[in-house]
Design a protein that fits this description.
Length: about 90
């Protein structure tokens, strides 16, 4: 189920990118740049979540509750930057 959902989501993302080029709304370089930017954001978010999960598995390495705030702030900042870039474009 997860593979099917991920495949369909990936296909929809690519199709939307091609439709934006076909309709003449964006240049191919714009679409490729957005794909690369979004991929980088996903990699950063997954890495931060993995770090959080690995640290929570080891009681000796567990971070205090106050240490989770920077992690969540980083994810929120990524979402804000994305929203601002979409608004400007």
């Amino acid at each position: 189920g997860r593979w099917a959902a991920a495949s369909i989501a990936g296909l929809l993302i690519v199709l939307v990118g091609f439709s934006r080029m076909y309709l003449g709304v964006h240049y191919p370089s714009d679409v490729l740049a957005s794909f690369f930017f979004a991929s980088a954001q996903v990699c950063i978010a997954v890495t931060l979540i993995e770090i959080n999960q690995r640290l929570s598995l080891h009681p000796g390495l567990r971070l205090p509750d106050s240490s989770y705030k920077p992690l969540m702030a980083a994810l929120a900042a990524m979402a804000l930057v994305s929203a601002l870039l979409v608004a400007v474009a």
